Amino acid sequence: MHDDLDRLPGLLSHHAAALLAGLEDRPAAVVDRPPPPRRPLPAPTGLDGALAEFTERWEPGLSGSAGPRYLGFVTGGVTPAALAGDWLTGVLDQNPTSRLDSSAPALEDETTGWLAEILGLPSHTGMLVSGATMSNATGLAIAREWLGERAGISVADDGVGALGEITVFSAAPHASVHKALSLLGIGRKRLRTVPALPGREAADVTALDEALTALDGRPAIVVANAGTVNTVDFDDLGAISALRDRHPFWLHVDAAFGAFAALSPAHAGLVAALDQADSVCVDLHKWLNVPYDSAVQFTRRRDLQLRVFRNDAPYLGAPGDVPADLTPENSRRFRALPAWFTLRAYGRDGHRAVVERNIAQAHRLGALLETTPGWRLLAPVRLNVVCFAHETRSPDEIIRRASPEVFVTPTTLWGSPGLRAAFSNWRTSDDDVERAHRALLQ
Ligand SMILES: *Cc1c(COP(=O)(O)O)cnc(C)c1O
């Protein structure tokens, strides 16, 4: 192992650098290459042997998901500074779970503070979690504790059964919200779908008002959306927030990637009321362009968060100020470092430029598809996603034909099968948009 240690700098400057340089030419997706058969653990051959085998057996099957024409899901790239931060995360291998041994947790606080600053969340504090799914689950766990507070009990101590039935409202919740409701013992069936405005995924606020009125003063949870995955629709956060004057509910906003609309002055109005939410979910491995896995859970009620996640381990330090007391995990990686690096290196303006470029690219692809015979948009382009379909070709067929040049993902919108192309990578150029369009037509 010590020999390998001496050779690491060379490996980094050769092997990793070559992979990085080849990223734009990697296949966007590898769709027709079966993975190599599993085999028993071979005799050890050191790092050289491991690297040779990885390069031959596994690397060809890996996608160019960090590259410019991977438009599937909502997949961010990795800025150079974020990658440097990620490399250092592995080198330093901090465990920011307690404050006893290093200033790593303080760097995490600075990072979430910078994010709160650029995303317009001055009333919130943030903690790092692995992704938006975990951020939604954490936010909804705090919501559940708030329901307990209203009922004069502690769900953390007495269990969710002490609360009775919980009602959750949302117009177009992300799949992960259903998972979170299952995980938290609230139950998937407790989600009441709020009617959306005609032709939209945004909630009809009048219908939500009526549904809340029917609860007769019983507290509820509302999950609002700031950027749905198919049509990137935004709930009217200001109007929903104002309903709290008349109805008791916890407002959780899933702003996994839509929060970054705040960086574009032309779109910031969509999230102007985000700070009024009680909890907010923001992914960093999407539009901030840091490597997996990284997201933030923002809340205005850290006291309730502590009640839920309190770890009560004297060896971690005084309860309350310990990161492990605030999130589902105890030990974890120094997750904030890549985000700290990219924010410090490029700032609000650098990330604003990425967001604005991606928005323009989505509009460009939308315009190209709209004027190409046989193709149609399933929804207008609102931000960075194009949702579209072909008259006769199935989504699967289009995905296969477009690969390896470009990767898009299938979806269903209002019962119609379609495809989504999501722009969220700093590397994507305007030429990549033209290439993606040509590949889709093949
Ligand atoms: C991506 C996404 C999620 C889930 O995020 P993960 O990072 O995959 O856990 C939740 N909500 C929205 C709106 C998303 O776009």
From TrEMBL:
InterPro entries: Aromatic_deC (IPR010977), PyrdxlP-dep_de-COase (IPR002129), PyrdxlP-dep_Trfase (IPR015424), PyrdxlP-dep_Trfase_major (IPR015421), PyrdxlP-dep_Trfase_small (IPR015422). Its cofactor is pyridoxal 5'-phosphate. It comes from the Bacteria. The keyword Transferase applies. Residues 28-48 are annotated as: Disordered. Residues 33-43 have a biased composition (Pro residues). Keywords: Aminotransferase, Decarboxylase, Lyase, Pyridoxal phosphate, Transferase. GO terms for molecular function: transaminase activity. Belongs to the group II decarboxylase family. PANTHER family: GROUP II PYRIDOXAL-5-PHOSPHATE DECARBOXYLASE, MIP05841P. This is Aspartate aminotransferase family protein. The lineage of its organism: Bacteria, Bacillati, Actinomycetota, Actinomycetes, Streptosporangiales.
